């Protein structure tokens, strides 16, 4: 004899929109508690595909279905099952339908599903030579669109997906491919007024710099964008003298020669400093850093710094610049 929960799950398959909506609303409510999540996990093989199918329904049904999947995907085992069932592909297909009304929730679902390798592999479409990287390029393009005129930034959480992907070697390789130019596009969001976007940008840059030994040339190819993104947050509040700015490229010197808003988030300063450190571990990277008067910038920035973690990151970089080689890389 079927239990109440089994009957509820069966109602998710109902051809009646009213019945399906009532069922999915209850399921969404259950995913909001630990007990509910555990109960639904016992029926994952039926619940997950039914919720996935409902993502293509009208908003009153697709929205609670997406919210339920976001909650369920916080469980590692359930997230792994979602990836195996092809929910990454389903989410991407629905996300880019012209009439999609649950974009923000689908992006949040993808954040959860790319926190482990199988989800990253699925999003990168690894193994499909013709399609590899297509989903990722779509997300980058959406992330890099201007969001200043949009009340709800549906793609702000893509920054977290970028960070997840950049923890993976194949993901970094894709980002650093000069023909695709993805990292260059992403870096341009470094001064976004949206803190989630900024965090995503700096986390992604930092992770890509872990490959500086092999990818330094590709990183320096975009130095016109990379150095301002990394150095402006750590430059402190001082208006720099003409003597200092004359030794910098225009994109740095013009900004540092006037009053500007400080970067208040110390985590961004730490990530920027760690990225510079990883680049500077390479001799050619140190030469590039000196060529933009980078040491002077971090010297001035250190004088204004008050956050202990950021001060430690300044000191680690300073020690490297003085002694010429590093001893310990930042942890991923």
Molecular structure report:
The protein is mainly α and 332 residues long. The protein has helices at 4-11, 17-30, 34-41, 44-54, 59-72, 76-84, 87-95, 103-113, 117-124, 134-144, 158-166, 169-175, 182-187, 195-208, 212-220, 223-231, 242-245, 250-256, 266-280, 283-291, 294-304, 308-323. The protein has a domain at 1-26 and 41-145 and 152-167: Alpha Horseshoe (Leucine-rich Repeat Variant). Helix 5 (59-72) packs parallel to helix 8 (103-113) and helix 8 packs parallel to helix 11.
SSE topology:
Elements: H1 4-11, H2 17-30, H3 34-41, H4 44-54, H5 59-72, H6 76-84, H7 87-95, H8 103-113, H9 117-124, H10 134-144, H11 158-166, H12 169-175, H13 182-187, H14 195-208, H15 212-220, H16 223-231, H17 242-245, H18 250-256, H19 266-280, H20 283-291, H21 294-304, H22 308-323
What keywords describe this structure?
66% helix; Leucine-rich Repeat Variant; mainly alpha; elongated; 332 residues; single chain
Give a nutshell description of this structure:
The chain has 22 helices and no strands. It is an all-alpha fold and 332 residues long. The chain is elongated, with a radius of gyration of 23 Å.
């Amino acid at each position: 004899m079927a239990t109440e929960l089994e009957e509820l799950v069966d109602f998710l398959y109902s051809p009646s929109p009213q019945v399906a909506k009532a069922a999915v609303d209850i399921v969404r409510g259950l995913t909001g508690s630990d007990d509910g999540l555990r109960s639904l996990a016992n029926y994952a093989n039926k619940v997950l595909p039914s919720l996935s199918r409902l993502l293509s329904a009208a908003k009153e049904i697709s929205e609670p279905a997406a919210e339920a999947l976001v909650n369920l995907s916080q469980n590692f085992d359930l997230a792994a099952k979602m990836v195996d069932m092809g929910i990454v592909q389903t989410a991407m297909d629905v996300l880019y339908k012209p009439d999609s009304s649950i974009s923000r929730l689908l992006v949040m679902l993808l954040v959860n599903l790319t926190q482990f390798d199988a989800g990253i592999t699925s999003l990168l479409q690894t193994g499909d030579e013709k399609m590899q990287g297509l989903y990722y390029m779509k997300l980058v393009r959406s992330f890099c669109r201007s969001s200043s005129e949009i009340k709800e930034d549906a793609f702000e959480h893509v920054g977290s997906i970028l960070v997840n992907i950049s923890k993976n070697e194949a993901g970094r390789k894709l980002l650093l491919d000069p023909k695709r130019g993805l990292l260059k596009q992403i870096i341009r969001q470094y001064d976004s007024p949206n803190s989630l976007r900024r965090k995503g940008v700096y986390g992604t840059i930092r992770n890509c710099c872990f490959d500086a030994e092999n990818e330094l040339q590709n990183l320096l190819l975009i130095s016109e964008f990379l150095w301002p993104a990394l150095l402006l947050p750590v430059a402190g509040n001082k208006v720099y003298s003409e003597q200092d700015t004359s030794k910098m490229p225009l994109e740095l010197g013009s900004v540092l020669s006037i009053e500007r808003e400080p970067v208040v988030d110390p985590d961004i300063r730490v990530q920027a400093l760690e990225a510079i450190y990883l680049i500077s571990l390479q001799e050619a990277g140190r030469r590039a850093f000196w060529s933009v008067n980078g040491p002077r910038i971090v010297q001035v920035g250190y004088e204004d710094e008050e956050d202990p973690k950021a001060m430690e990151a300044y000191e680690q970089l300073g020690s490297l610049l003085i002694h010429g080689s590093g001893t310990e890389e930042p942890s991923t």
